[in-house]
Amino acid sequence: MLERLEEIAATEQLFAEEFAHTVNVCMAAGCMSSQSGLIKEAFDKEIERGGVERRCRVRGTGCMGLCAAGPLVTVDSQTPDEVLYQQVKVEDVPDIINALEGQPVKRLQCSIDIPFFKRQKKIVLENSGIIDPERIEEYIARDGYSALLRAITEMSPSDVIDEIVASGLRGRGGGGYPTGLKWTTVAKSDGEVKYVICNADEGDPGAFMDRSVLESDPHRILEGMAIAGYAIGASQGYVYVRGEYPLAVARLKTAIRQARRSNMLGSGIGGTPFNFHVDIRLGAGAFVCGEETALIASIEGKRGQPRPRPPYPAEYGLWGCPTLINNVETLASVAPIVRNGGEWYAQYGTATSKGTKVFALAGGIRNTGLIEVPMGTSLRDIIYDIGGGISAMGECKAIQTGGPSGGCIPAAYLDTLVDYESLAALGSIMGSGGMIVMDESTSMVDVARYFMEFCMTESCGRCVPCRVGTVHMYNILDKFSRHEGTQDDLVLLEKLCDMVRNTSLCGLGQTAPNPVLSTLRYFRSEYMDCMIPEPDGAEIINETLEVAQ
Amino acid sequence: MKRPFKTRIKTLKIDGIDVGAREDETLLELAQENDIFIPTLCHLEGVHDIGGCRLCLVEVKGTNKLLPACMTYAEEGMEVTTNSERLQMYRRQVLDLLFSERNHVCSVCVSNGHCELQWLAGKLGISHVGVPYLYPQLSVDASHRFYIYDPNRCILCTRCVRVCDEIEGAHTWDVMGRGTDCLIISDLNQPWGTSDTCTRCGKCVQVCPTGALFHKTKAVAEMEKRRDFLPYLRTMREGRK
Amino acid sequence: MTPRTEKLEPPSDDKRWRIVQATMQRNGFERDGLIETLHTVQESFGFLDDDSLRYVAASLNAPLSQVYGVSTFYHLFSLKPAGKHTCVVCLGTACYIKGIPLLLKEIENEFGIKAGQTTPDGQLSLMTARCLGSCGLAPVAVFDGQIDGKVNVHEAMARLKALQEGDNA
After folding, report:
1. How many angstroms away from the CA of C167 is the closest CA of chain A?
2. Average pLDDT of adjacent 10-residue blocks, chain C of 169 residues
3. How confident is the model at residue A451 (pLDDT cuts 50, 70, 90)?
């Protein structure tokens, strides 16, 4: 079977070499919304018009990373360096085609010799922007599915788990739970039937890593899931994708179909007795469904409300069966780890956080887009070197990580080396990888209010602290943003933060106070500036209750 | 290797008292057995627990998370604290939040004197509410022949939903919306009286901890509720299987 | 309860019901397929009305109140028909700090509707999204299904008016 993969890869290679030039147009959501679809069509027409079909081909690829400069186009002329064009318009297409045999079009060219590209280490994104996500052959040509075949033919399930343990990989969805340990517990759980779930319910506002991986390299997820299924003894997997990501869903569907046809999914994979099926389940717009037990409820067709853990899904998950839930990026790291060994992966990163992490840079930063760096890269390098610094005039004020569960890290801590522990020590979290850069024009009270509004409307309503506590916290923050806060409000706000954090049922409520607590910690003076100059005393309404004695 | 015994017995400490427990007993059950008071609102004997009201949170040595006693099972060597200063503070805050969420005015409520929320407020020493009232505007549903549903007094404990589903088997009630916009609804959010699925058994009324569900014809003094039928029904039904 | 094996008669002879039936069949007429089924109804008819909810509930042997509870829990399901044109404003963090609240306010003022509402003439529905995942292009809005990045208030308002006038022309 491995030979068949090599055959497909060789054919693909030969096919690619037939063309002197390959034009790659980014067809991920970012560039697609700046009409990269039309640009690809224009290239097709222009090549036909110029009669260069034999020398030049056009491909749609996944995300190239530098979304700020989209639509992006690369030209690979089988020379060491490809040419990258930025902000390409339909009118530019003839110029690019005409320049194929000569010098690149200077006015559109974007240097690839900049830190944005040079300083990244791509493992999860190794194929993003390089392969056509809608063709399994291209994935196979880049060693795709070889890890799965190796795992099921040469390794025992516990060998596979050992590699994951050795890699030191930790959950990329936010919590940072050791992936190897999670796999071990599910593998050890009693049960004839087990499930693998890929959590692609990327709900953090300001995060688009998972979306990009699904759109750019969907087979990588399927391969990771199948390896996980083999390791824990599951034969059914579900990808739970946000309903807001139609393109990702379409590409995933195509990938599942192709993988089934190529016998990389389904029954008797690669001629072995191993079966693994994958189905897609669509989310319907509920942030709380990123929480494991809520996600399970949602796959079961119910309201996405979490339940207390333990029992953990590893023991009692989907339909009561042991269930492994991993995030997209975690599963995307699995195939390279199995292919190259856990130790290879563990050479990147810090003592406690191994490997690389994908971040989505957004907000007031010049190079908005998607990057992948080794754990332990400093915030300063990410923002100023790779990110190109602040887009507007002025300085970086704070960096928001972890979305509504995270916090705002002030610029004074820019030299922090990013890993799970260091961000937690600063009162934020790694989260799924959204990194929003805020410049001096951003009001921190307003940011806290924004996230609290988010948590308030996304609260499922099951437990009292989160359901009602977030409303009160929002109301107080709203008062502050109208410059009507009082000292009593501040006291009450801190009390509520403590209570909601310690008594809420699930992660949504337990972390909802984080943006408030971190802004209070670093930007307390901004809250003070939002108070009524002369507080007119306690304004808390005291309703009289007749308490039965 | 299979274990030679069916249910394991655990020994643990609750508030310093040594307790013997079956592994399928919850901390709440154990506390009640040993006359230790833990406040509850969403818990209802005879239907499954959801851990939603957070009143029964207890401290367990060795973990910094507070655990709901109604859904935490006995483990060997556990040391449980049920009534620390910190827990009392959080419990009072939970009640504060519940009072503030809807329109709870005890003096004009049919359940005055028979309300679990009111009783707990007294028991936990609450004399005033520490957060502003939210005053939502919710309309009362009096369309049912026998009963009235007043969402202004509802605390979303979902006892009615669970009893209707698990004991009566009608599943007339459920929750709509999310967050603080949640509402208990019958069928397709229609007047209760027009529901095709309601059997008029009144179990939901009996289990409601507040005055959100009540009998049309009963006066304030008679608004006592009967619950003992629940564990009985559950036992009878399980015995039949 | 054993799931239903035969199809129930749909509320009307509208052909779109066949797509809905196919979804339910694929999930073995099990209650688990409720969200999948509601997605199909929403896609086929644009919204979920009482008739469709009753039909789905009966077909899947699911309680009416549960079906209603699920339909109102998830933001993507709508119980009311959308307007002829739709505008979705992204409220993700990146869009928020890049000024999307101004655009939202402007549209609300201009058309006299709040987010989540449709103009009385049924022309425009204004919606918000939690995050469209196009943060690299913030601020982002979607006009009739077309994503538009780096929008400014002026352009967006012109675009909405053009949509309106396109109909009148």
Report:
1. 24
2. 65 92 92 95 94 95 97 93 89 86 91 89 88 82 86 88 72
3. very high
Last residue within a domain, chosen from A379, A413, A439 = A439
Contact A217, A332 (CB under 8 A): yes
Q: Is residue A86 included in any domain, yes or no?
A: yes
The mean per-residue pLDDT over the stretch A499-521 comes to 96
State the CATH number of the domain containing residue A63: 3.40.30.10
Q: Residues A195, A334: one domain? A: yes
Residue A329 pLDDT greater than 90, yes or no: yes
Domain edge (last residue) among A297, A317, A346: A346
What one-letter code names the amino acid at B210?
T
Please provide the DSSP assignment of A269-335 as one string. GGGSS--BEEEEEE--S-GGGGSHHHHHHHHTTS------SSSPTTTS-GGGS-EEEEEHHHHHHHH
CA distances to A516, B88, B122, B134, C155 from A446, rounded to whole Å, are: 10, 33, 39, 22, 26
Say if the Cβ atoms of B118 and A547 lie within 8 Å.
yes
Q: Are residues A450 and A433 in the same domain?
A: no
Q: Cβ of B187 under 8 Å from any chain C Cβ?
A: yes
Residue A452 has pLDDT above 60, yes or no: yes
Tens-level pLDDT at each residue, chain B (241 residues): 566 677 789 999 999 999 999 999 999 999 999 999 999 999 999 899 999 999 999 999 999 999 999 999 999 999 999 999 999 999 999 999 999 999 999 998 989 989 999 999 999 999 889 999 999 999 999 999 999 999 999 999 999 999 999 999 999 999 999 999 999 999 999 999 999 999 999 999 999 999 999 999 877 666 677 777 777 887 887 776 5
Domains of chain B: 10-83 (3.10.20.740), 88-236 (3.30.70.20)
- The pLDDT-based confidence of A549 (bands split at 50, 70, 90) is very low
A172 in a domain, yes or no? Answer: yes
What confidence score (pLDDT) does residue C6 get?
62
Q: Are residues A373 and A331 in the same domain?
A: no
Q: Say if residue A385 is in the same domain as residue A331.
A: no
* Pairwise CB contact (< 8 Å): B172 & C68: no
The answer to whether residues A415 and A316 belong to one domain is: no
Residue A17 lies in a domain: yes
Residue A448: domain span = 444-529
Pair (A154, A250) in one structural domain: yes
Question: Touching check for A467 and chain B: CB below 8 Å?
Answer: yes
Residue A139 counted as domain residue: no
Residue A263 has pLDDT above 70, yes or no: yes
In the 3-class helix/strand/coil scheme, how is chain B assigned residue by residue?
A: CCCCCCCCEEEEEECCEEEEEECCCEHHHHHHHCCCCCCCCCCCCCCCCCCCCCCCEEEECCCCCCEEHHHCECCCCCEEECCCHHHHHHHHHHHHHHHHHCCCCHHHCCCCCCCHHHHHHHHCCCCECCCCCCCCCCCCECCCCCEEECHHHCCCCCHHHHHHHHHHCCCCEEEECCHHHCEEEECCCCCHHHCCCCCCCCHHHHHCCCCCEEECCCCHHHCCCCCCHHHHHHHHHHHHC
Contact flag A467-B182 (C-beta cutoff 8 Å)? yes
Instruction: Give contacts of A203 with chain C, Cβ < 8 Å.
Output: 130-131
A96 and A236 belong to one structural domain: no
Verify that A397 and A295 share a domain, yes or no: no
The CATH number given to whatever domain includes residue A277 is: 3.40.50.11540
Within 8 A by CB and 6+ apart from A107, the residues are none
Total domains present in chain A: 4
Give the pLDDT of residue C3.
52
Interface contact flag, C69 B174, Cβ < 8 Å: yes
Residue A337 above 70 pLDDT?
Answer: yes
How distant is the Cα of B90 from the closest Cα of chain C, in angstroms? 28
